[in-house]
Amino acid sequence: MTSKNIIEYFRDMPDPREDNRRHMLIGIILIVICASLCGATTWDNIEAFGKAKELWFRRYITLPHGIPSHDTMARVFSKLVPEQINRRFTAWANKAGLILGQHRVDEKSNEINEDKW
To answer: Which residue range is the domain that position 62 belongs to?
Structure first.
């Protein structure tokens, strides 16, 4: 049996943006997840990680306008339903056999916290 890659778990996630979809949702989600797994804890760090790894990301996703700004990623994530992200990420992590500490995005500050759920 083949396992799905992380993109497949998020590809059909509903996009809450009504307009101004300059950057693809799957691109934003993948950049944020990868950066977070590599230790980024602020939106500025996530943007910097995305820019540093842009060529690698382009192997897997289309980035017609490059890496989104930290403000764009924070704004998009503030509109996503945390339970949907958690459910999809957990399903992927379990399938991939990963054992991870739990993190959450604070809804008010949009900061990534290492608090237990």
So the answer is: 23-113
Q: How far lies 90's CA from each of 29, 33, 97, in Å?
A: 14, 12, 10
**66 vs 113: CA distance, rounded Å:** 27
Query: Would you state the structure tokens that stand for residue 24, as one six-digit string?
Result: 């693809």
pLDDT tens-digit readout, 41-80? 999 999 999 999 999 999 999 999 999 999 999 999 999 9
Number of domains the chain is built from: 1
Q: Please report which helix (H) or strand (E) contains residue 20, including its range.
A: none
**Domain annotation covers residue 9:** no
**Distances 18 to 9, 14, 52, 91 between C-alpha atoms, Å:** 22, 11, 30, 27
